[in-house]
Each structure stands twice: as C-alpha cells, then as structure tokens.
Sequence to fold (338 residues):
Amino acid sequence: MLDLRSDTVTKPSEAMRDAATDADVGDDVYGEDPTVNELESVAAELMGMEAALYVPTGTMGNQIAARVHTERGQEVLVERESHIYKWELGGLAQHSALQVRTLDGGDRGIPTPEQVRDGYVEEDAHRPGTGLLTLENTHNSKGGVAIAPEKIDAAAEAAHDLGLPVHLDGARVCNAAVALDVSPSRITENVDSVMFCLSKGLGAPVGSVLAGDEEFIARARRVRKLLGGGMRQVGVLAGPGLLALDNVSRLEADHENARVLAELLADVDGLSVQSPETNIVLVNTEDAGLTAGELLDACEERGVLGSEFGTHVVRFCTHWDVDREDVETAAERVRDAL
Ligand SMILES: *Cc1c(COP(=O)(O)O)cnc(C)c1O
Fold:
C-alpha cells in the first residue's frame, strides 16, 4: 500500500528507535529530563526564540499559545481555512473562551495588513476586544503553500501596531523554510510564538514544539500542565524528536517527489493539479465527473491512499517513507483508478 494520506504516517527509523532506547531521562515535570531539555534548547535556537516547550501534539501547542496570549472572552483573528480554526474541535472556544473572527487569506491563506486592521476590534463597553492574530505556514488547506517571510512580517507588523501578539502555526514551517531557502528563524523573526511538528515530515513518532520568549514559555508550561500534558520520563520520545531536527534538509526530497507526482497526475485526463510548493499535492477531480471520495475508493483498491480535502479535492502528501519510484507507481495507479 502506498500511503499518501499524510506526512504523519512515517514509521520511526532504526536510529530513532535506538534514540528512544538510549535516551537519558528524568522527570520532566520537575524539569529534570536532560533529553527534553536539550530538545527544547536546540528547537528554540532553530526557531530563533529564547525558549521552547516540548508538547505531545501540534494541536496542544497551538491551543496553549492561544490561551497564554489572550484573556477569556476576547476575539482572535484566524484565517478562515486555518487548522487552528477548522481542525482543532473549536478548542479556542472550549479551552480559552475565545470568539473567532475569520479573515479570508485568499489563494495563499495569508491575511494582508489591511485585513488585520479591518478585523481588529477595540475593546469597549459592548465589544470584546481582539487579543491575538494567528497565521499558518505552510498553509495546509491551501495546498502546502510556503508563505514568504515578508508576508508574515507585514501581517505581524500590522498586528503589533494594534498591540496584538502573533502566533504562527508552523506545523510545517521547516517545509516552508526549505522551499524558500531561508532559515526557519527568518520566517519566525517577527512573530511572538511558533508551534512546529516533529511528527510530520521530520519523521519523529510523536511530538511538537512551542517556542517563544522566556516569559511566554514559563506561562505555557503551566497551561500544558493544566491540559494534562505534563509528562514524566519523556526523553524516550524527545530522543527521536532531537534526531528529527537533523532531517530538515531532507524535506527537499519530499518536495521533489511532490513535484514529480503533480507532473505525472497533471497528464491524466480529467484531473487538474495545483503546482506544489512543498510536500502537499492537491488534485481536483471535477472535470473527470468524479467526487474525491469516488476517486479515493478506486485508488484504495489499487493500493494508493490519499485524503479527501473537499467534494472534488484529493490531497496526496509525500513523506520519508515514499521515494521517487513510489510516487511514479502511485501516479500510474491513480491513472488506472480514474
Ligand atoms: C497537523 C497540524 C496541526 C496539529 O498537529 P497535531 O500534532 O496533529 O495535533 C496544526 N496545524 C497544522 C497546519 C497542521 O497541519
């Protein structure tokens, strides 16, 4: 089976399994797990932030950030197709009592400075006031587009001028950095916090990191505990996570495989394919007279998995466990399925 549903499906390498076995551990709730401490310090540096916090999932990282940056009852500006808004069970309302105001970030999912200013609500006797702007890079729903640092800077500057902090959902920020040939810390230069996933293209079995300044991370540590995310000898997970940080440049291979897959699929009559910038390939099935679900069922019978991203949109994701030959085979099977 060629599993292109997500870049989360990778199995840990032998080296990662060894890193789990060999990790030096301690009780991380007491701050005594040396492997976690090392991961947090390496990750903070990679993101150009003062400090970092290891969290079990990207979702928890995003939700902690929202909670720390805001006060109960405020509004948060989110992009209308963003993960933090669409795919986290309404956690902004559930955990932090926030009301969302959505901005339409267009084809690339990035709000303009004008949109940020227009969406801002000043607190008064009737209005809750805006407490946070969130951004996403790469933008998942828009097809893994890599947002240029200047666009992030512009939105962040508009927010900062209004006194708003900015959180970046950078689940795949390393993909963006590789695609744009900049460091991750360039992308995060003007945001106040960033979350990124070790368990996506970087290949770790578990884990994400939330980074920001010292004070933010100290508060985030308390909220992680509140949400039940205080873990003990978790170096056994952070060890593979540390190795994952060595895999940033490897993401280029996923991007190349996505380009190959997209080119091959674009040659199939009835499919229209968005040119990938990173490791996500969006395929529209409308001209073939098929829904995404129908195409995916036929693909599955032929040994290829993808995910349904809309009535007529299929997402294929390249990752560490598929190589060039696999994507060529996958494209052949999709053609056959159609
Ligand atoms: C996967 C993802 C998350 C959440 O990560 P989990 O570890 O699955 O909770 C957040 N944001 C984006 C953009 C993602 O793709």
